Amino acid sequence: MNLKSKKYWLFDMDGTLTCAMHDFDAMRAQLELPPGVPILEALAAMEPELAQQKHQQLDDMELDMAAQAIAQPGSKALLNFLCSQGAQLGIVTRNGKAIAHATLAACGLDHFFTSETIISRDCCTAKPDPAGVNLMLDRWSAAADAFRSWCFP
Length: 153
Description:
Rossmann fold, three-stranded parallel beta sheet, mainly alpha, 7 helices, 2 domains
């Protein structure tokens, strides 16, 4: 498979383009959520008023972490190379849009992406739901079948 010829590149952010720094167990404890349950799913199961408060706490925690974000070694070089080849770049993240922008800015990757090419939990149902991937493919006017043929065996 020749990856150099691929036009569309969709990335996760935390732990892929940026160094992973979330301690999800500590975050769940601070939010008083049950252990082992994914945070967004735990919040979705709450009463709306309590969920809104917890979402704000989560956003505050994540914005603090975003300010300390560090790019993965080699990520800038990779993104520069892909841009030089005319590739379209996008991100699908479980973070909120403002958090994604702050994270990318803190680690110097923000100039590779626009608001339209960052798909967050604010745009659609969060990963692992495929809505974010589908939304980005729609924005690119890219054929999902061609994308899946080389990305998902």
